[in-house]
Amino acid sequence: NADKDLDEQMVFEEFVNYLQDHEKDLRLVFKSLDRRRAGQIYSKEIVESLQDLGVHISQQHAEKILQCMDKNGTMTIDWNEWSNYPLLHPKENNIPEITLYWKHSTLFDVGENLMVPDDFTTEEKLSGIWWRHLVAGGGAGAVSRTFTAPLDRLKVLMQVHGSSSNNMCIMSGLTQMIKEGGMRSLWRGNGMNIVKIAPETAIKFMAYEQIKRLIGSDKETLGILERFVAGSMAGVIAQSTIYPMEVLKTRLALRKTGQYSGISDCAKNIFRREGLGAFYKGFIPNMMGIIPYAGIDLAVYETLKNSWLEKYGTKSTDPGVLVLLGCGTISSTCGQLASYPLALVRTRMQAQAMMEGSPQMTMSGLFKQIIQTEGATGLYRGLAPNFLKVIPAVSISYVVYENLKMSLGVKSR
């Protein structure tokens, strides 16, 4: 982390910069834990602050941690004790490292921007770190979505055209796409999928911050339930605003060669033939899918995080890249699995007008038709390519995210 020019040597200036950056990070965490603004941290504040981050420890555990840092026997931690402890005991369990490692570990793009946003402290907002994290996350999402776009388009085709009579598999679907439009056709709809990242992320972040204020919490970091409520509401607001882009993405992914010349041509055709209401087809199942996705994703992630900390937290504060990626991948997969039937019905409602002779069915009508003709498994068509893209999407977005953070001047842990 200290070797900024990557020459595998550390000069004195790099060492000083590393210590200064580390001290800034420690001061941010100290201020967030010092809830009374007394310049000292009490064991109760440690328990409450970690609970807000989803890390649950007992009062006795907090007192043991405090005793390790408390050098003058006051049963409180002042700034000097706080800042010196990680330097003198780098491998021991300490609160600063736990919070720093896990805090921004959910900014991995898996193609679904439905997860609960991260919290940023006042200092992070004033220093501009928050927008650097968001920009890095957006850029990482654009790259990972482009790499996994063929699997995403295949998922949409299987959701819309797959049936008991047309049992499309991964290989036959890819072959069909290439045969119809060549290799470039594998990326149809990807342009709109990337374009919608910026407005959706910005709107969700702003809505999340406003909802936090409406909830009435004066805490910089919300508890798990508060994060779920605020995150779900922010997701609803963001999705409501950019939903026409979701419809355009589906229509562009399903288009035949030469059907539309681009995004604007597709939008004009939809408006001229179907009216403004067409841009909100499938809106209700889309909104309904936000709550199970966000709730399960957050709950599973926090459960996995706490399980790791309980088992290994006393040996090491650094969970490592594989643990962070693993927790994010598993939680996202569980969230997608719970909301997938709603996502499938949404996609079919968005695409109904493109299918000649197909009746325009409601959400409940589509559910009944799918279950009657295909059984419950029909609600999970396209799940295989959807799951296949999760691991490469998370891995690619993490690598790009870390590199973009460094380019923007945000130090990696």
From TrEMBL:
Its record classes its membrane topology as: Multi-pass membrane protein
Q: Does the keyword DNA-binding apply?
A: no
| Primary site of residence | mitochondrion
Q: What are the EF-hand domain coordinates in residue numbering?
A: 21-56, 57-92
Q: Name one GO molecular function term.
A: calcium ion binding
Q: Name one GO biological process term.
A: transmembrane transport
Q: Which Gene3D superfamilies match?
A: EF-hand, Mitochondrial carrier domain
Listed A to Z, the keywords are: Calcium, Membrane, Metal-binding, Mitochondrion, Mitochondrion inner membrane, Repeat, Transmembrane, Transmembrane helix, Transport
Q: Which Pfam families match?
A: EF-hand_7 (PF13499), Mito_carr (PF00153)
Identify the GO cellular component terms for this protein.
mitochondrial inner membrane
Solcar repeat positions in this chain? 128-214, 222-307, 319-407
- Compartments in which it is found: Mitochondrion inner membrane
Q: InterPro entries given for it?
A: EF-hand-dom_pair, EF_hand_dom, GDC-like, MCP, MCP_dom_sf, MCP_transmembrane
What is this protein called in UniProt? EF-hand domain-containing protein
Q: Which organism is it from?
A: Oncorhynchus mykiss (Rainbow trout)
